[in-house]
Write a structure and sequence with these properties.
Radius of gyration: 21 Å
Distance between the termini: 24 Å
Shape: elongated
Structural class: mainly alpha
Helix content: over 70%
Number of strands: 0
Largest sheet: none
C-alpha cells in the first residue's frame, strides 16, 4: 500500500516559527509589559529621563522586531497552513504600523516634553499598548498553531490511522 507523503519536510519551518513566536512574545512581555511600566515606578528617575530611556529602548526593540518580522515572513514560504501565514502577516503588519506611524508620533511627543513643553492630550500610548497586546496574543496563537501543526507532521497517515483505531477499541 502506497503511503501518502506527510508534511515532514515542513517540520523544521514549523518548529522555527513556533520558537520564533515564543521568543518574540517573551521579548515583548519583558520590554513592553514589564520593564517599561516598572521604570516609571522608580522614584529617583525623573519623567524626562524615563521618557528618554523609554524612547531609546523602543527604538532598539523596534529594530529587533523588524528583524524578527523579516525572519518570520521569510519562513512563510515553507509554512503549509494558511492560518499560520495569515497570523504571521498580521503580526508583521502591526510592526509596520508601529514603525511607520506610532513610534514617530510618540517620539515627537517625548521630544516636546524633553524641551520643557506639554504636548496636547493624546491616545497614542493607549493605541500603542493595544497594538502590543494584539501582537502578543497573535504571537501566542502563532506559536500554538505552528507547534500543534508539528503533531500532524510527526506521523504518517497510516500511523495516525493506527492511533485512531487503538483509541476506538
Amino acid at each position: 500500500m502506497k503511503e501518502e507523503p506527510t508534511m515532514s519536510g515542513h517540520r523544521p519551518v514549523l518548529f522555527t516559527i513556533s520558537v520564533l513566536a515564543v521568543l518574540w512574545a517573551g521579548l515583548l512581555l519583558g520590554v513592553s509589559f514589564l520593564a517599561t511600566p516598572v521604570k516609571f515606578m522608580a522614584p529617583s528617575l525623573t519623567l524626562p529621563v524615563a521618557l528618554d530611556v523609554g524612547r531609546q529602548t523602543f527604538m532598539v526593540f523596534n529594530w529587533v522586531e523588524i528583524a524578527l518580522a523579516v525572519a518570520l515572513i521569510a519562513l512563510l514560504a515553507g509554512a503549509p497552513q494558511r492560518w499560520i501565514r495569515g497570523v504571521a502577516v498580521a503580526v508583521a503588519l502591526i510592526v509596520a504600523l508601529q514603525t511607520l506611524w506610532l513610534l514617530p508620533l510618540l517620539d515627537a511627543r517625548v521630544q516636546v516634553i524633553l524641551e520643557g513643553s506639554t504636548p496636547p492630550p493624546s491616545q497614542l500610548h493607549t493605541l500603542y499598548i493595544a497594538a502590543d497586546t494584539v501582537k502578543l496574543i497573535l504571537l501566542g496563537v502563532l506559536g500554538m498553531l505552528a507547534f500543534r501543526s508539528l503533531g500532524g507532521v510527526l506521523y504518517s497517515r497510516q500511523d495516525r490511522q493506527d492511533r485512531q483505531d487503538r483509541q476506538v477499541r
